[in-house]
Write a structure and sequence with these properties.
- The chain is built from ten helices and no strands.
- The chain is mainly α.
- The protein has one domain.
- It is globular.
- The relative contact order is 0.22.
Length: 274
């Protein structure tokens, strides 16, 4: 049994089209995208949920990466705009780190086509688990719940350095970028947890957009499947961002610790033992 939905009108290239997917696979992928978008608005990590689902559905690896970028970029934009409308992040005030993230992501997206990722794949879980431990032990961050908006980011050279590194990592591999960016927002820029989450979603959107454009240029995106996932992911991201602004910081902290820790353990097992 087959089904054709909105995104199939835009399918290009060789990867498995959603027109060839059974209904149960489409339902499963849509549900995964919805749930991942919801959680991504709060903690990040949606790509690490959707990507394996795409591979299990039979989408070729390179096209799965590109299609995942399309989905992630859309859901991140939805979450970022929701935060901006609620006054939790002002892109104009953070132009330097945004520019640095964009440039870093461009370099990373080009490098990923040339460099073997085996070493990074093994090291990545250690970084993600380190972020989870940071949130666990740094309980003082839940006290910084006052929403402050500096007139401009302090120490622009430092902002450029952090943005470049985040963009480079996101463009090269990407997984865990949201958690790292949230941690930096809290520890370096002294933001509240909600403000750091808002900044993280916007910077991750910028980095993913650059990566998506690179995969599009290489014709490694299944537009039909990606748009379908984007629709469901954006819906989840919208409600996730809306709920986050109403949640208490201690509860949000628990969600970040749990999601980062579980994702890190799964990646660690796959990289070192699978």
């Amino acid at each position: 049994m087959r089904i054709i939905i909105i995104g199939s009108l835009f399918h290009f290239g060789e990867p498995k089209s959603i027109m060839a997917l059974p209904v149960y696979e489409l339902v499963e992928l849509s549900g995964v995208a919805l749930g991942a978008g919801f959680m991504s608005a709060m903690t990040g990590g949606s790509g690490m949920v959707v990507l394996p689902a795409l591979l299990m559905a039979g989408v070729p690896p390179h096209h799965a990466l590109g299609t995942n970028k399309l989905y992630t970029t859309g859901s991140l934009l939805t979450a970022a705009m929701a935060y901006i409308r609620r006054g939790l992040f002002n892109p104009i005030l953070w132009g330097m780190i945004i520019l640095a993230t964009l440039l870093g992501a461009l370099v990373g997206a080009v490098m990923v086509q040339l460099i073997n990722k085996e070493i990074l794949t093994k090291v990545l879980p250690l970084f993600i688990m380190a972020v989870s431990l940071y949130f666990f032990f740094n309980k003082s961050m839940i006290e910084r719940n006052k929403q402050t908006h500096p007139s401009s980011p302090p120490k622009k050279k430092r902002d450029f350095a952090y943005g470049s590194l985040l963009g480079l990592y996101s463009g090269f591999f990407g997984a865990g970028t949201g958690s790292f960016t949230t941690a930096i927002g809290i520890s370096v820029f002294k933001m509240s947890l909600l403000e750091a989450s808002a900044m993280s979603r916007f910077l991750c959107f910028v980095a993913n957009l650059v990566g998506l454009m690179t995969f599009m240029a290489l014709r490694r995106v299944d537009y039909g499947l990606g748009i379908d996932l984007l629709i469901f992911g954006s819906i989840g991201a919208y409600f996730g961002a809306k709920l986050t602004t109403k949640m208490s910081c201690p509860l949000l902290r628990i969600i970040i610790i749990a999601s980062s820790g579980i994702m890190g353990l799964i990646l660690f097992y796959k990289a070192w033992f699978a």
